[in-house]
Every structure is written in C-alpha cells, then in structure tokens.
Amino acid sequence: MALAVLLVGGAGLLIRSYLLLRDVDPGFRSESVVAVQFNVPSARYPDRDEVLAFYDGFLEALEGRPGIERAGIVGQLPLNGTSWSSQFKAEGWAEDRVGFEILHRRADQGYFEALGIPVVSGRGFGPQDEADGPLVVVVNETFAKEHFPGESPLGQRIAYDRAPTAESSWYEIVGVVGDQHQVSPGVPPRSEVFEHRDQDWSRTNWVVVRTDGDPLAAVPVIRETLRDADPLIPIARVRPLRQVWRQSMAQETFVLTVLGVFGALALLLALVGVYTVSAQAARRRRHELGVRMALGADRGDVMGLVLRRGTSVVMLGLGCGLVLALAAGRVLQGQLFAIEPTDPVTLLAVLATLGAVGVLASLLPAVQATRIDPVASLRTD
C-alpha cells in the first residue's frame, strides 16, 4: 500500500502537470495549419533577387488556390528552437549596458497572420520593408519587457554587437508581437527578434499555410503549386503545426505514460494484496469468529471486527506511503509544470482513491466472514 501511494502519487502529479501544460497558450493557432520546407537551388537561382522573386511568386500563386486562407514564410517553426542567438546594443545605451542572448528568426507578415500571432503595438512587416530598404525588426513582448522596461521599444535602433562599430548594421524596431514558445509550452518564451525574410534572406525556408479544413488535405495543392513554379524543386519536409505542438511535449508524454502504467499496476497490486492479506487473516480467525457468533455476536459485529483489522493496515500503509511520496517528490521536481511535488490536492486525491480501494478490498473478506457456520467452525478433527 505504501509503494502504491508512492507510484500512484507520482502518476497523479504528472497527470495534473500534463493537463496544466496542455492548456498553456503556445502563442499561435496550430489548428488547420501545415508547414512545408524546401530549398531554392543556387544552380538555377544564383542571386538574391531571383530567390526572393521565386518565393513571392509562389506565395501569390498559393494564396489564389481554393482552401488556402493565408501563407507566409519563417526560417524556423515555433516550438522547434531558433536558428541563432546574439548580444545586442541599443542606440543611446550606456557603454556597460548590453542585451544578452536574444533569439533570432526571419519571417514575413504572412507568417504572423497565418498563425494568428497578434501585433501588440506598432506594426508588422509590410511591402515597404524591401530587401534594400532600411533594416527593420519586430520583437516579441518578452524582449520589450526585459530590455525596455517601462518604455516603448518602438523606434529604437539596435545592433547585434556588444560594442557597435562603423561597420555595424542598425535595425529599427517597428513592432511588438505576442510571445511564441520557442522550445515547449513548459519553457517560458525568451527575448526574440524577427528580421524580415527579404532583408535576412535564405534559400531554405518553411512556408506555413492556413487552410479552411484538414491541413494535410492541402498538401497536394501545395505540391502542385510548387511544381507549377519549378518542377525540379521537391518538398523536403511536411509538418502539421498540431503535430509540432504534440512533439514539443514528447518527453512529458513519455514519462507520464511510463509512470501511469506503473501507477495502474500498483493500484491493482494494492487491491489484490490487501484483499489477500485480509482474507488470509479472516481465515486464520475462523475458529475465533465461530466462537464469538456461537456466544451471541451478530453478523454486523463480526464484519466490523474483520473490517477494522483490514482498514487499520490500510491506514498504516497510506501514512507510510505519504511520507515516502513527500520525501521522493524532489525527484519529480524537474518533470512538473506549475505545481509542486507536495501539491495537496493531488496527494489527497491519491490517498482518498487508495483508501477507498483498500477499504473495498477489506470489505470483501469481512462479508465472507459473516457467512461462517458457527457449528462447523467449532468442530475439530
């Protein structure tokens, strides 16, 4: 019973943690969104302008297809890490003031709109943000709160250097967008900047597509559109955003499954074990119970006697198990989200469930004991 409390308690904590994690807003809408990745080869598109023109034409053609609501480009999908990080310095900051470890991602306005990411202040990317135009970035809310507390970051110019020089590139912050979780729903968003995909261009990108139904049903349409643009460019990867969201919690799901199986087995073993011990104890007292009944004890007295014996053992096991669970809780600390290993709601629920199982297992032998024939139990060989 004590070991059952330990295992079922751990499973209960992970279940509550998983449910809380599942309800975390990742910062984007994953329903009906699919992402495809491909590379525009340098052999046929040798310079930047040709690559950018290819992506522009592909997106325009794709959004004209039935079932496609919005499409955009991003260098790295959310909940999938980011490509690189750096330090930065804002224009006008003191010499010793530096921003550390900001994450970078390239994107366009179609990406934010396809995933339903709101522009909190300022503006998103627009047609005025050309490849050879003034360098601009959009930052997330965490960036604004951490590096510009109590003031607006809009209009601030930043360079990705600890000590900018004459050769440094300066980017103007034109907008602030909502946070997106970069690693998993359980890891808080970090400071992040988004460069326009034309100003930080790449041949390999993810194209995120919002559809009006099943996202996988739109993949043939995307393939056909890409084939019309260039039949020699294959799609390298296809990822529904809902699948990305689930895979970001793969570790938590695995641990929950394993511990859940052991918890269920522990619950079953506790039920069988308590019943077996209680039944064996009742059988050993068969002669005593027969004497009691022959001397006038009614069936309720006999049942209460056996039941008290079984439940006392159950209660002792629950107490020992609670001590073990509290002592071992720190082992699960790193696997839990938004709750403590000593969460009273979970532990009380586990104790109540196992207590009910233990009482039920003790009740069955107690009922059987009331069916003892006093005369037969007093007979000796």
Descriptive terms for the model:
381 residues, alpha+beta, 4-stranded antiparallel beta sheet, 11 strands
Query: What letter string, H or E per element, gives the SSE order?
Result: HEHEEEHEEHEEEEHEHHHHHH
Taken from the alpha-carbon principal axes, the silhouette is elongated
Q: What spatial order of strands do you see in the largest sheet?
A: 3-4-9-6-8-7
State the secondary-structure class: alpha+beta
Count of DSSP-assigned helices: 11
Which percent range fits the helix content? Answer: 40-55%
What kind of sheet is the major sheet?
A: 6 strands, mixed, barrel
3D structure, described in words:
The protein has helices at 2-22, 48-63, 109-114, 141-147, 219-229, 241-247, 250-284, 286-294, 299-332, 344-369, 374-378, and strands spanning 33-39, 68-74, 84-90, 99-107, 119-122, 136-140, 157-159, 170-177, 192-196, 204-211, 237-240. The mean pLDDT is 91. A hairpin with an 8-residue loop joins strand 3 and strand 4 (99-107). The protein is built from eleven helices and eleven strands. The two termini are 38 Å apart. Helix 1 packs across helix 9, helix 2 (48-63) packs across helix 5 and helix 7 packs antiparallel against helix 9. Helix content is 46%, strand content 18%. The chain has a six-stranded mixed β-barrel. The protein has a four-stranded antiparallel β-sheet with strand order 2-10-1-11. With 381 residues, the chain is of the alpha+beta class.
Reconstruct the topology from this structure:
Blueprint: H1 2-22, E1 33-39, H2 48-63, E2 68-74, E3 84-90, E4 99-107, H3 109-114, E5 119-122, E6 136-140, H4 141-147, E7 157-159, E8 170-177, E9 192-196, E10 204-211, H5 219-229, E11 237-240, H6 241-247, H7 250-284, H8 286-294, H9 299-332, H10 344-369, H11 374-378
Parallel strand pairs: 4-9, 6-8
Antiparallel strand pairs: 1-10, 1-11, 2-10, 3-4, 3-7, 5-8, 6-9, 7-8
Helix pairs in contact: 1-7, 1-9, 1-10, 2-5, 7-9, 7-10, 9-10
